[in-house]
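Retro notes (design track)

What went well: tokenization of the new backbones is finally stable.
What didn't: we kept losing track of which sequence belonged to which structure.
Fix going forward: every design gets posted as structure first, then sequence, in one message. First example under the new rule, 426 residues:
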């Protein structure tokens, strides 16, 4: 009996806990660049990229070759037992790309949540303080500490009780929803007045462009003032670049466009083209605050993932993917704005590089989020062969994270499907 999506979904429901969500009832069999083929042989255009993991596309031949070569050497020793050069080389190359004119060191781990957890550990050790300020709409992971930092309860921490203490929430600036830079800075000052003294705050963590929160871009003037505020009070600034990093926004790290450098930067997702590696890169003096044995993990910085990540960095340089990112972003934004002119339900199209979102609302009123239409568009697009994702605090944002290596013709096909969906549903 041949496999079907329906039969596999039935097996999944019996074997996998319901807390592991699944956006599309599809089982992938194979993939190439910006397309995925399911177990029934149907091909889909991939505008999701494994949630911002495949900036270099599915199975890029240079990344596959690097992994295959590493497989002939070794797959694991645990870096803390027997070291290997790819780990050190990746740390060096990431440090060279992370913004900041200061000596840096890099820690490798396995997931984005781990990276954020370790950034907080480092900040606490470096400052001797415990508190952390995060932002409304922020997403930083699903582990206990990162759930506390994540600014959305349902579905991430629903039913789990209160998350770790010592975390305070400031407003993320968003002109579309009436939160100015002044408002956001004032919300931090209110924390200092009402909840915790600055000398109790180890770090402020922020996504330069919010991921799950809706792809809102932090204004430069806000970042400048945030950096000054951190410097004034001896607070470390953590840039969570798990989703924005590895070239998604048109620079290798989004903070390059923000006018300031963070003290610590987290990275993961697309850095290794589909292989699990993540990390923290920051000022050497802060990174060295924890004694030997306080950082690391059994699989942290695996040789296979390091080989993949080094190949990703090479591909970005050899294929000029940062420039390609800008071209992809401009082409998609232009197409989506053309759709917007016909449909009042699209409140805003926004982007930084190829990190692109459409916010859907009722009749053009941005204060009336239209999650229902967003879900319908995602489902209808799937029927037509396009994989899309939604996000946002109210579930009313469509996001595009297509591989930067996608051909123009494929981008145009995706845009045409989105246009058809809006014509039929909105």
């Amino acid at each position: 009996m041949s496999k079907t999506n329906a039969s596999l979904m039935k097996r999944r429901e019996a074997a996998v806990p319901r807390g592991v969500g699944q956006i599309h009832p599809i089982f992938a069999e194979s993939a190439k660049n910006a397309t995925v083929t399911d177990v029934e042989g149907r091909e889909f255009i991939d505008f999701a990229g494994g949630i911002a993991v495949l900036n270099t596309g599915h199975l890029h031949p240079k990344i596959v070759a690097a992994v295959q070569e590493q497989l002939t050497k070794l797959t694991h020793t645990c870096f803390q037992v027997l070291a290997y050069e790819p780990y050190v080389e990746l740390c060096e190359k990431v440090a060279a790309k992370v913004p900041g004119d200061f000596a840096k060191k890099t820690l490798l781990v396995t997931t984005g949540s781990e990276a954020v957890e370790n950034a907080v550990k480092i900040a606490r050790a470096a400052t001797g303080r415990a508190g952390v300020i995060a932002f409304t709409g922020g997403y930083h992971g699903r582990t206990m500490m990162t759930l506390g930092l994540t600014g959305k309860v349902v579905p991430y921490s629903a039913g789990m009780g209160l998350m770790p203490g010592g975390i305070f929430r400031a407003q993320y600036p968003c002109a579309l929803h009436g939160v100015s830079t002044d408002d956001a800075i004032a919300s931090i000052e209110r924390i200092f007045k009402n909840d915790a003294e600055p000398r109790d705050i180890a770090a402020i963590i922020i996504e330069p462009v919010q991921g799950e929160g809706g792809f809102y871009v932090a204004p430069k003037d806000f970042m400048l003032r945030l950096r000054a505020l951190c410097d004034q009070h001896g607070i470390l600034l953590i840039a969570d670049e798990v989703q924005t990093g590895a070239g998604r926004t048109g620079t290798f790290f989004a903070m390059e466009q923000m006018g300031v450098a963070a003290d610590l930067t987290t990275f993961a997702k697309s850095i290794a083209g589909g292989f699990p590696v993540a990390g923290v890169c920051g000022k050497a003096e802060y990174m060295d605050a924890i004694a030997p044995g306080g950082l690391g993990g059994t699989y942290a910085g695996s040789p296979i993932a390091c080989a993949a990540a080094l190949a990703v960095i090479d591909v970005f340089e050899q294929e000029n993917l940062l420039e390609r990112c800008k071209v992809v972003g401009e082409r998609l934004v232009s197409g989506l704005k053309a759709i917007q002119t016909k449909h009042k339900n699209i409140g805003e199209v926004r982007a930084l590089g190829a990190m692109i979102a459409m916010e859907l609302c009722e009749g053009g009123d941005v204060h009336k989020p239209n999650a229902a239409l967003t879900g319908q568009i995602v489902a209808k697009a799937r029927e037509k062969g396009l994989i899309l994702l939604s996000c946002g605090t109210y579930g009313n944002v469509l996001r595009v994270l297509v591989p930067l290596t996608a051909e123009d013709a494929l981008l145009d096909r995706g845009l045409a499907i989105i246009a058809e969906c809006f014509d039929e549903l909105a």
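Added context from the reviewer: The mean pLDDT is 97.
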